[in-house]
Design a protein that fits this description.
The chain has 2 domains: 2-157, Alpha Horseshoe (Serine Threonine Protein Phosphatase 5, Tetratricopeptide repeat); 179-222, no CATH class. The chain has a two-stranded antiparallel ribbon. It has helices spanning 2-15, 24-35, 42-51, 59-73, 83-90, 99-104, 112-120, 128-137, 141-151, 154-157, 179-182, 194-198; strands at 209-210, 221-222. The chain is mainly α. Helix content is 48%, strand content 2%.
Length: 225
């Protein structure tokens, strides 16, 4: 799995784009490596688990959340991933398959503080919000802390302060622009792969747009005013 992914990374680098995130099958293979990491690959395996899997309700996220839940509960062991770190990683998944495991950990004294921190900064709760409220009403102090954090908008107030100055780049071209300039129809097949599809922006020549090679996927030059 690692060999195949490294090959993919190299191929994408040659195209000038970042690698794709792991899919569900790759994650299923990855978590086996987390359980029994190859010698010398521990850091690589953990980096892929932490940073190369989509959050939310992607199929790969389902596999990741289920694995982290098992580690947090102690039903799965790993020499490189503790139960505490598993809960922390669940807290980075933004909402979806991670919510139920985090709510369950509100009942575990050793892990509840980590679950509180994770849930306090998670907004995509949907109906699971009521599960937290029910726990609070039943006397669960950790659930009460989560509800109070939501009420105090900690998720917003704890975010980094907006910079006093933000520098942006504005592209100005002659005439009007349209979707075929930004997302050419012949390249629609690549739209789900945003980094790859971005290479097709402004690939077709017209007034104000000078591609390196007209009609080919490339990084376009900006014409001078």
């Amino acid at each position: 799995m690692l060999e195949a992914y490294r090959k993919h990374v190299a191929e994408r680098a040659a195209e000038g784009v970042v690698p794709k995130p792991l899919d569900a099958q790759q994650v299923a293979e990855l978590v086996k490596l987390v359980e029994t990491p190859p010698a010398g690959e521990e850091a690589v395996v953990l980096d892929l688990l932490e940073n190369r899997i989509p959050p939310g309700v992607d199929e790969a996220a389902y596999v990741k959340a289920a694995f982290l839940d098992a580690v947090a509960k102690g039903t799965v062991k790993s020499p490189i991933l503790s139960a505490e770190r598993a809960v922390e990683l669940l807290g980075t998944m933004q909402g979806g398959y991670n919510i139920e495991p985090l709510i369950a950990q509100l009942e575990t004294p050793a892990l509840a503080p980590l679950a509180v921190k994770a849930l306090s900064n998670t907004l995509l709760m949907f109906d699971a919000y009521h599960d937290v409220v029910e726990k609070m009403q039943a006397g669960n102090e950790s659930a009460k802390q989560v509800v109070e954090a939501w009420a105090n908008a900690d998720w917003f107030l704890n975010r980094p302060k907006l910079a006093d100055k933000v520098t942006l780049t504005v592209f100005k071209v002659a005439g009007e622009t349209n979707t075929d300039d930004l997302s050419p129809a012949p390249d629609a097949w690549s739209r789900p792969d945003i980094p790859l599809h971005a290479l097709a922006m402004l690939k077709n020549a017209r007034d104000g747009i000078v591609p390196d090679v007209s009609g080919e996927v490339n990084q376009s030059k900006r014409s001078k005013p």
